[in-house]
Amino acid sequence: MRTLKTSEAAAVLNVSPNTLRAWERRFGYPKPQRSPGKHRLYTHGEIAALRDALQEGLSISSAISRARESVSADTHVLVGALAAYELERADAAMEGALALRSVERSVEEVLIPSLEEIADRHGTDSAPWALAARWASEWLQRAQRLSPPATRRPTVLLGDATRDALDPDALALRALELCITRSGVRALTLPVTGLAGLGDVLTSYAPRVVVIAGGDEADDAVARWAYRVRAGAGALPILLFRRRGRDERTRTTGARHLPASPTLASSQLSDFIEGGARDLSLNEPLDLDLDDDVAVPPGRGRLTA
């Protein structure tokens, strides 16, 4: 994917860099990503779409609306392909999305909304959803394999508390794992039901922060796993991702929830690892009150983050 610096994007649009930044602040478009040095990088496809709209003589607000419509067309194409069970066309739709966006934004703005629309149309217990979800999971796995290797040693440990591969939260977890990896941080996903041999894995990977993702597994199972993680790796901060929305028996209180957006959640985690996010409130407790019959050592129900 081709990107442009602020000065280059402004030159394509024949405006000053200050004007380009003013459009970004006022209209939220074009929406840049950030380089490792925190400099703006604009996607060439978005800039080109805006340039073409401006060349038609439209006002800036109308031109931005036109450009947005052009970019959002990828979502409609992907939904159509998945609804028609044409998986090769779905692959092509994502290739088209990648021509205009980064991998992260393609996932956030095209793949996830398209899957949500399929779920709304058919339900997550339907055959169309199963087909679309399995395709999306395979696409995310391919993107993960093609991602550059992580360059920073710290590891984010992701505790998988989702139902199965067809759980919508499982797709969000795969997307989060991809975004974390592409930020240069190692990501390791383990099921919260897997306790045997956990200490050896923790010793090898030395995680810096733990994220419990998904709302299917009960709090007592999550608490057992979290206790074992801390027994093996120390008092690590524990955050929650997409764990809201469980039934009325949910007893998780006081813990910090990451944004439901995989890209925003990954950004917060990256900032924390770099030591720049003081507002994560990681000293708040993760309070998992356990039933009397849960086999966790006395006094270990409250996990202080």
TrEMBL record:
Domain HTH merR-type: 3-51
Stretches assigned to coiled coil: none
Pfam families linked: MerR_1
InterPro entries, per the entry: DNA-bd_dom_put_sf, MerR-type_HTH_dom
Signal peptide region: none
GO biological process: regulation of DNA-templated transcription
Any GO MF annotation of the entry: DNA binding
Record SMART domains: HTH_MERR
Protein name in the entry: MerR family transcriptional regulator
Organism: Baekduia soli
